[in-house]
Predict the 3D structure of the following.
Amino acid sequence: MRSFLAFLKKEWMELLRTGRLLIFVLIFVLFGIMNPAIAKITPWLMETMADSLESSGLSVSAVTVDAMTSWTQFYKNIPMALVIFVLLWSGSFTQEYQKGTLIAVVTKGFARWKIVLAKTCMMLLSWTICYWLCFGITYSYNAYFWDNRIAQEPVFAAACYWVFGLWIIGFVVLFSTLASANIAVLLGTGGAMLAFYLLGFLPGPREFLPTKLMQSAELLTAYAKPEQYFGAMAAAAGMLVGCLAVAVLAFQKKKL
Amino acid sequence: MDMLTLRHVKKRFGEKQVLRDVTFSVPEHTIFGFVGQNGAGKTTTMKMILGLLEPEGGEIKVCGETVHYGTARTNRLIGYLPDVPEFYSYMTPSEYLRFCGEIAGMSGKEAKSRAKELLELVGLAEETRKIRGFSRGMKQRLGIAQALFHRPGLLICDEPTSALDPVGRKEILDILMAVKEETTVLFSTHILADVERICDEVAFLHRGEIVLRGTMEEVRKIHGDTGYEIETEYSADAERLRRYLRGRGTEDGRCRAKENEIETEYQKEAEQLQIYLKESGAESGRHKTTGSKAEGVSPGQKASPSEIISCPDKITAEEALAYILEHRIPLRRFEKREAALESLFMEVVGK
């Protein structure tokens, strides 16, 4: 346990001293502020653009915004934040392979599975903190400017997307142990994502695919019920565990 | 007791058979030189000892425990210094060493005091900068400190001096000499001067096999070019001595000059040159026959009458000296010749 915590501490130090943590926090805080900010300035934007829109034949009536406008922005922006998050974590293993820094760690008798686990913990933890920070900021502004009660199940809907992020992290870890370059990690993760997205067109497995969690915004408008997402959430959690198990096995024989 | 044993180890990368049959063992508390050309398979062998590469055949044991690829528990007994050690550049040397100790299972307090001790050993105790600003020599010294951190029974150093300047090389070799008491060192290199300086035993890897191994003394004896060099005051005495050696059936027909004024491969050529020099007015010719080129001689150049004779090992020093005393031959020098590892290496690799 002591050695595991030492490696975890090293990962934290890396996140802090390489400035990666600062980038994550800035991005997620920015997105958190941007969601209500965009909603807030939409009427003013429409007003300033009214003249030019009218000349092209479009009439602009009074635009009303509420917390739902801000939540809609949240679900439009969060995929972009997730992509940046994956980009910045895709080199976590591969940079160590390229530099050879893990050789000193492994040759001290440190178990390989602990490396996979410590890096995964740090990814999950940073995603959790950053994601809920972004959510918290949007939620607070929405509560300040408007009323969050207009949205049904805002926390559960957000939790669905959080689980979707955890599921993606499972693939980042898996492809990080299989591939040696971070472009391969990105392609692998993207490819897996695409495969599940295409699988979603089939009516059968659709309800149990983690990609369904991307549509959790529909929970806000009461078009969907939380129970409809339980299957996809369980599937995502199961696949995350599966990805990590395969990653640990693959990493045991990984050429460092 | 042997700290490390390799038996019939084989490794292939694609079509290339890198190691055919590597067998050797490293006794405890020795500095073992693992010598081979670039690309001979030294790093591959070391990575297999560390469980970082899978052997195709054979067996590797560290302290009697078999090494398994991937999950090498034997690594807790090994310290490893790669040829180009890499560190987490955002850490200070002290932080990095403490990290090394903690991942090896030491307590924070123990790791801190061991880090201090080792930083003093490698001369980095005063360094508070981040590792990213370190020179290659400093990184190499820090590499040794991290490799020794958990007090390993076996320290494996992969070409630790190859890219260093003479000062850096000396520092590393001095550290390796200093740690010999507490650990066994397996040291790969192609710098033979380093092997001659610090190693107790040596093994030569060539074409995937150990072609020669033993203690430094044994290896030097194997090489044919040992024996004595006798430098006479006068050329005529050298001729007498040479005839005596030839009569004993041992003289190899070669003679050496003290300086490189003439170098010839064969005695006959040397004699012809001597005649030529005499005819041209030179008092005597000096000749050296172990080289292969004639250089720097001009007709009429005055040469020293002294001459060096190569006396092979077959004649004992006592026999040669007895003859010299009996015939009252004035000498300038009588010296035991030792085979340079470099010439032995060239012989082994067939160059």
